[in-house]
Amino acid sequence: MSGDTRVVAWWSQAIMIGAIVGAVLLPLGALGHRLGVWSFGTGFVFLAAGAFLSVIVVLGGIAALIAALRTGREADRPFLYVGLLVGGAIVVLMLAQIATARSVPPIHNISTDTADPPSFDVATGLRGADSNPVDYDAAKLAPLQQAAYPRVKPIISDRTAAESFERALNVLNGMGLEVVNADQAAGRLEAVATSFWFGFKDDLVVRVRSRGTGSVVDLHSVSRVGQSDLGINAKRIEEFIDRFNAA
Q: Tens digit of pLDDT for each residue in 56-100?
């Protein structure tokens, strides 16, 4: 790392360029999948490559910055600062995602009624051949779900079934979900949620049944791809419950 300290060294430029490339790979992989250019597996390869490159950038950038400070290479510092800032932000983002994944069970199938989950109708025809099954394995999933998401329970309402159906439909629309089935006679509503970056789709079914003079509302949300949903399906159901029960 010798030479003219007034000239920007190749290694400091490489650190900054590496950070920028890493930052581009993350949204590129996600948007490519969303637009149908490649599979979600390929998109994750882009994501992993961007994360790995960012780790290299941070480690190399720290060593290079120390050397630049010791040798008085002021011209290199802005490049290294930018590289460390961008690369560090990506690493922090990835670590946050990993922490989220570790904090929830690796499941993607959530139901308020674990004994008799609401069944899908229209949504089954929208799911591809490689999609996750929609069947709820109560023996495997219920203990994990109930321990991690105790708020995911049936909604017991004083509203009639017809009133609850209309309320549920309004809630789905208010959450920005794509309603694909509204069968009041069957007491079934189905909707699709699409993630912002990757365009991952989760299917949600709402079942409304009479209970005395009131009604009971159950939900079942399943991701089409992936093993862990990072808690998204449970959060969606919890948001629905909060909105439904709001005055």
A: 999 999 999 999 999 999 999 999 999 999 999 999 999 999 999
pTM: 0.85
Q: How many CB atoms are located within 10 Å of the residue 213 CB?
A: 8
Cα–Cα dist 73/192, whole Å: 55
* Burial of residue 246 (number of CB atoms within 10 Å: 0-12, 13-18, 19+): exposed
Contact 9, 3 (CB under 8 A): yes
The CATH architecture of the domain made up of 109-245 is: 2-Layer Sandwich (3.30)
The H or E element that residue 203 is part of is strand 201-211
Q: What's the one-letter identity of residue 69?
A: L
pLDDT in the model for residue 3:
58
Give exposure, 133-155, as e/b (b: 16+ Cβ within 10 Å).
Answer: ebebeeeebeeebeeebeebebb
